[in-house]
Amino acid sequence: MASQDIAAAMQRVEAVLRRRPEAGLHEDAPGIARWQGGLRMVASHSSGTQVSTDMPSEVGGTGDQISPGWLMRAGIASCAATCVVMAAAAEGIELATLEVEACSQSDARGMLGMRDAEGGEIFAGPLGIRLLVRVSAPGVAAERLRKLVERSHLHAPISSAIRAAVRMDLRIEVGGG
Question: Which domains does the chain have, with CATH numbers?
């Protein structure tokens, strides 16, 4: 879809949401992961799209699929890039290149439920996330592109959820067997 088409679509949605703000609140499509044996999972979307994950062989997986952690980083990068494209379209900027790299560092001991030398719990998630955005647009000043990326990052849903540490409810249903 061309930049102008993206901008027009965004303007139509914004016009509707200005008239009916309650229309903006919606249930997101659930991600469903089903165990396939070992440490392999298949995550499914209601559209039929599926993604297989597995863990590295060092922790008992086969290592032949992407890990759930990588899938999270890919989601962060893809979401951030999408928001940059949307912001650029809204401003009439034609991007030439855009690449977002999401990196993190984790302590595997946390995922294994291990404790540190003092007996404290080790955090299981990433200790931090770094985003590197490479962007260019002919005839657009570097500072304008930097500001566009910074603004769009503030509105990227996945980055926003991580920054705000959204509440997560856990519900458990135990079946027979």
Answer: 31-66 (no CATH), 67-164 (3.30.300.20)
